[in-house]
Amino acid sequence: MTEHRDVATGPPDEYVEAEIHRLLAEDPDVAEQGITVVRRERGLVLYGEVESPHRREEILRLVAERFPHVPITSDIGVIRAQAPTEIEQLP
User: Fold this and answer.
1) pTM for the complete prediction?
2) What is the model's pLDDT at position 63?
3) Are 67 and 20 in contact (CB under 8 A)?
């Protein structure tokens, strides 16, 4: 008898975290290694910081496409990188 797990309601597979890391690192459009994947009771949470809202949305889209039945929550922040407004003086 084979065990059947309803992927829509069951807990995420134990290998999904590693698959998400690999997917984000190897995708040529994303190539992101700074995202942490943490298992929670009701799914997975993606943590980290990226340089734009567009990049965050692209990461979430990619993960949702690859793992459509895994509940994913995002805690990915956006770093506001701006050019310095003054010259830094070192002693």
Assistant:
1) 0.69
2) 92
3) yes
